[in-house]
């Protein structure tokens, strides 16, 4: 069953990433503050990534969304779920990346909440993972706001990352729009 459909939150329109959104993903990865965490991507790399994400939506029914403000239509960033291998286990992973101008306005939390609704609702997940560089305090704060608990430090591409986990039924975060 495919879950690849547009979702609405209080302030955002979340669209499954596919070929027509490649320009918006490319622009996101050109943002200097995003590139600090993800590196600066070429157009070709983004095209390959978009094809991979679109295939995952088609085959698995889950992956990242592009997020747009519902009122203005501006691209806020990307986020949502993907399946990844963490600590030798296949897991649902929740993540986000926002254009710098949208930091600190609660959008990452809003995207995260939508991802958790999909994971624990339609996908029937028992647990969701989220991880970031150990020094990315903003993302770690979002994870905690969403109800994730720190599990341990892990290594990703030879870099130290902090792994957070959230089990089905765990107490979740405050109302939408609060925090980052």
TrEMBL record:
Family matches, as Pfam families: Acetyltransf_3
Residue ranges of domain N-acetyltransferase in the record: 24-170
InterPro entries, per the entry: Acyl_CoA_acyltransferase, GNAT_dom, N-acetyltransferase
Protein name stated in the entry: GNAT family N-acetyltransferase
The species this protein was found in: Paractinoplanes hotanensis
